[in-house]
Fold this sequence. Notes:
Keywords: Cell membrane, Lipoprotein, Membrane, Palmitate, Signal. The structure is a single chain. This protein is an alpha/beta fold. Helices cover about 40% and strands about 15% of the residues. It contains 17 helices and twelve strands. It has helices at about 20-25, 55-70, 85-95, 105-115, 125-130, 135-140, 160-165, 185-200, 215-225, 245-255, 270-280, 290-295, 335-350, 355-365, 380-385, 400-415, 420-445; strands at about 35-45, 70-80, 100-105, 140, 145, 150-155, 155-160, 205, 280-290, 305-310, 325-330, 365. The longest helix has 25 residues, at about 420-445.
Amino acid sequence: MTAASIALIGTQLAACGSDQTKQNESASPNQSSSKPVEITWWNFPNFQPLDGEVGKYEKQIIAAFNKKYPDIKVNLEMITYEGGPQKLNVAIASNTAPDVIYDAPGRIIDWGKKNLLAPLNDMVSEEVKKDISPALWKQSMVGDQIYMYPVNTAPFMMAVNKSVFDKIGAADLLPLDRPDRTWTVAEYEKALQAVKEKAPEIIPSGFYAKSTAGDQGTRAYIANMGVSRFLSEDNSKAAINTDNAAQALDWIVKGSKDKLVVPGAVSLAAADVNDLFLQGKLAFTINYSAVLKAQNEPNKKVKFDDVLLPFPTLDGSKPKLEPYLGGMAIFNNGDKAKIEAGKKLIDFIANDPETAKKNLIQTGGLSARTSVTGLYDNSEYKYAELARKFITDPPTIADGYAEIRTFWFPELQKALSGQATAKEALDTFASKANEAITKAKSQSKAK
């Protein structure tokens, strides 16, 4: 993203530093004889690379941090989305976990439930707490303990290669003339048919079922098309095995035969489908966000206009979008000095008046704080801000979710390969998910 495409709000973030920041600045190691401390920060590529170099921006953060905290040495280690999760598992098992991690709720909250993290309650002021929506706090807490400090967010949704529709003269089939861009499954199917007929070299839509990666895209796609939920509102049981959701999955299975959906979805992962999109070979992709839009820009193989869209619903009702949420956590490695140093690093990244807004923009995301808007002079980001009204509680906060998600793709594979009907597959998933929820709750009560 070029600097020219960004309009910064000069005062909003400058005024939103937390009480922790003010306390930290008043007790800056520049003005004290605090004992030096060394911490390790592991980071997925949450920030866009500078000059094509992964980790270069993070090093700039650390350099700026050390101007205020010269007695805190931060060792950075960049990890990938492919191998990072396993590397973290090994580190945790061998008691060599990093001190600080920038990740997402799916893993962080699971660690919190296992008592592996240090609570962050003392670094969250009332001002910050009120300025972040309950839906995001639910993803950041276990009980009344805050284990993840929310930083950047964006609703997960679809994206369309608008350039394809411009080329075939069918842009009017997209709901872009509606402020909220909501649309029906019937309207969506009509758009897919236009691609099939007028641009046969382009695959109309994507789907995948190879692995758990990107599961939020498939579950939200089916749930919205079927006007259903993945789990019940209180996350006590599966809710995706409705007749409408089964019809949505049946539609996907049939669509793969009718050349409306990418063939071979059983053997495709989320990254494979997004790669087809970035190559300009796919009209619609189902796992996107403002964050991914920014991260994907340098990876496009051809130039095209990627536009954000909500998932279509059966009756045109408001969609339910899960939020992407990025935030930071601290592993409790038994060293209070390291924990406090980690809190200072987190607070600096999220709230420093001079660098916080720059950090947010480098993630390509929106602020987790509702009062901070207008960071980008870009129509798609403005739409992403509007689409926050469609955000719903994600199932990732459910008891046993780490196990629940492992049952999802095998059942999708059965439906796609004809080994089970859509309803049978969803019923089987629901049964296994309910068992996992019951088991997790029992284990939690036993602690």
